Amino acid sequence: MEGALLFAAATLRISVPYALAAMGGAMSERGGVVCLALEGIMLHGALAYVLGAWATGDPWLGLLAAVLAGVATAALHALVTVAFRADQITSGIGLNLLAAGLTRFVLVTVFHSSSNSPRVAGLPDLPLGPIAQVPALGPLLATPLVPLTLALVPATVWLVFRTPFGLRLRATGERPDASAALGLSVARLRTTGVLLCGALTGLAGAWLASEQHSFTDGMTAGRGYIALAAMIVGKWHPAGAAAACLLFGATEAAQIALQGSGFPSALLQALPYAVTMLALAGFIGRATPPRALGTPYDPEAV
Amino acid sequence: MSAAPGAAPAAPARLRLPLGVLAPLLAVLLALAAGGVLIAAVGQSPFEVYALLVSQALGTGYGVGQTLFKATPLLFAGLSVALAFRAGLFNVGAEGQMYLGGFAAALVAAYAPLPAPLLLPAAVLAAALAGAAWGAVPGALKARFGAHEVINTIMLNFIAFALVSWWGRALFVPATVRTREAPEAAWIPRLDVLLPWLKGSPANLALLLGVALAALVGVLLFRTRAGYELRVLGLSPGAAEYAGVRTGRAQVLAFALAGALAGLGGTSFVLGYKHWFEQDFTAGAGFMGIAVALIGRNHPGGVLVAALFFGMLAYGGLVVNQRVPADLVNVLRALVILFAISAHALVERWARSREA
Predict the structure, then answer these.
(1) So what's the pLDDT on residue B40?
(2) Residue A59 lies in a domain
(3) Looking at the domain assignment, is residue B226 inside a domain?
(4) ipTM score of complex
(5) In a domain? residue A101
């Protein structure tokens, strides 16, 4: 029982940043904009959290800075891909390279270290009373971003599938010409989707930095790509994406649990990527992207 | 998803050349200007830093050699991405293909029981085959299941890293993350054997292999039937199919060739410099191939020029590290990509509006 709780807690802990970024990715891609930039946005969010918390001493302002940095990075993606209508895939890759270089540049300039920042405060625990006493899971649930993430899953599902905005966003991702014919602004809807992606993915970065109480070079370590994979396996549905994140989180928790047992952990490490390829090839149901995904919308091209 | 950028120039023919040169040039200048702001922000003079960068990277024989060495994997990766682009395929997997290529080369070079004269050719061939095999996978998945190659190549990069770290556990020299050193017969000779001026730099003959392959890719794309079919496939998959091109086969072929090129890019470091495989040796060169292809307009000649430019930046960044964090060049490279696609999209739109 104790072991099962520990495993569940480890899985949940690992899944939090994946789920936030994967839901963000779904927001962007449901509107028709490919977002390979999750990794870079998350990295910017993590550094901004540390800079904010370090400069003001207030972790909540660090959280705000992380969201703003995520939105700013996403705004750059929206500028290049929605306003300029340039290639979305390349823009995402460019932003990831930018974040890798820029965060280290700032790290060296501000903290005079190419590896890590000084220690900063993490977000304070919520006063949950008896719930916090539950072994393993309790302390995790008291960490503010965990309940927030759990609440954001139904919230994003509701936003995408139950509100006029969500309907319009999805329509824009499937048939932007039809959306435009209805008098909707394709550019505004797509930009909103991308910016929401930036906010959610910035939160993922804040979680990593708050948990670790510092920024280290390249600390996202490919998590943005795992989130991307989870979004695909979850078929561009926020709840599906979150479920895929739990699956990927569990394989990672198993990897850690099996360490030193002689089991080839590289096989578990490669599992999320292999599962994603199988999903894309249609072996796990059909993972069909939004129809207009990746295509810049040009109102003059009929 | 959209076709690869620059694969299908939509602008009218008379504007194509100025567009092709202008947009990348504009992107580089804008990136340098933005980088200048960053340099000024840390209290240095942008002109002095850029002058130092160029003079160190091009002013001495050793610097030129370092620039050429840094440019070598970028040339292979750029050719890989450009060839796939021409066929309408986006190869984000050059990193993993190069990684496996270098690993295979090191294994053959250090462990294969072959007579000495055969070691080097066998190791180079192993790099090409490993890259081709890894490259063919996303091609086949696209041809057979319509699975998008961008996600698959990204996933395959990570799978390649995981597999090598698994195999490496049994192979690596204890307490290191490298394979054992290859015998001298498997080494690619240094360029300073031919050009004593480059003395001491790790530039090696893999560069000449890359230049020769650039010429070959040019001939393939623009002078052969197979290359013509690939380009038609890139410009209009529907037209290609209607014209009788076996599109699935062409996609697998293009991706296998792209993988082979990237795989061969691993030989410069593994056979020409360290003489062993080292974890993370590619250090992003495969991803940079995307920038190289973009600035080189997916043309072998342009790719060569772009690889030399980015090679100069890569070495020059290390030289100016005393005054500005070396990551300045990483920021510059990313900005070049973002500006290049933006400039391309905007200039093309402007050209089309003038045409209308």
Answers:
(1) 96
(2) yes
(3) yes
(4) 0.93
(5) yes
Range B67-91 average pLDDT: 97
Does B193 reside within a domain? no
Q: Which residues of B touch A293 (CB under 8 A)?
A: 1
Residue A123 forms part of a structural domain? no
User: Number of structural domains, chain A?
Assistant: 1
pLDDT of res. A41: 98
Task: Inform me whether the pLDDT recorded for B1 exceeds 60.
Answer: no
Q: Do B145 and A289 touch (CB under 8 A)?
A: no
pLDDT tens-digit readout, B236-290: 988 998 988 899 999 999 999 999 999 999 999 999 999 999 999 999 999 999 9
Q: CB–CB of A228 and B334 under 8 A?
A: no
pLDDT grade for B303, boundaries at 50, 70 and 90? very high
What six digits make up the tokens of A119?
């220690």
pLDDT digits (tens, 9 = 90+) for A40-56: 999 999 999 999 999 99
Q: Using CB atoms within 10 A of its CB, is residue B112 exposed (0-12), middle (13-18) or buried (19+)?
A: middle
Measure CB to CB from residue B1 to each of A34, A267, A269 and give the nearest one: A34
Element (H, E) at B219: helix B206-223
Whether residue A125 lies inside any domain: the answer is: no
Q: Residue B77's closest CA among A105, A93, A103, A293? A: A93
Give B299-304's long-range contacts (Cβ < 8 A, gap of 24+): B299/B82, B299/B218, B300/B79, B300/B82, B300/B214, B300/B215, B300/B217, B300/B218, B300/B221, B301/B214, B301/B218, B302/B20, B302/B24, B303/B75, B303/B78, B303/B79, B303/B82, B303/B214, B304/B75, B304/B211, B304/B214
Burial B69-85 (b: 16+ CB within 10 A, else e): bbbbbbbbbbbbbbbbb
Paired tokens of B46 = 């942008």
Q: Is pLDDT above 70 for B3?
A: no
Is the CB of A276 less than 8 angstroms away from the CB of B328? no
Distance from the Cα of B264 to chain A's closest Cα (Å) equals: 23
Domain containing residue A262: CATH number: 1.10.3470
Residues of chain A with pLDDT under 70: 1, 302
pLDDT class of B356 with cuts at 50, 70, 90: low
Q: How many separate domains does chain B show?
A: 1
Domain carrying residue B245: 75-188+208-291
| Position B39 in a domain | no
Which structure tokens are listed for B290?
């995307």
Q: Is A75 on the interface with B (CB under 8 A)?
A: no
Place of tokens 């002095």: B48
Q: Please answer yes or no on whether A94 and B334 come within 8 Å at the CB atom.
A: yes
- One-letter amino acid at A212 equals Q
Q: Indicate left, alpha or beta for A20 from its phi (over 0: left) and psi (-120 to 50: alpha).
A: alpha
Cβ neighbours of B155 (radius 10 Å): 27
Position B252 in a domain: yes
Q: Which residue of A has its CA nearest to B90?
A: A89
Domain, as residue range, for A205: 2-117+140-280
Contacts of A289 in chain B (CB under 8 A): 1, 148
Which chain B residues are closer than 8 Å to A280 by Cβ?
Answer: 141, 145, 147-148, 151-152
Cβ-based neighbour number of residue B178 at 10 Å: 18
Q: Report the gap between the CA of A266 and the closest CA in chain B (Å).
A: 5
CB of A101 within 8 Å of any CB in chain B?
A: yes
Tell me what the pLDDT averaged over chain B comes to: 92
Provide, rounded to the nearest whole percent, the portion of chain B with pLDDT above 90.
81
Q: What distance in Å separates residue A210's CA from the closest CA in chain B?
A: 25
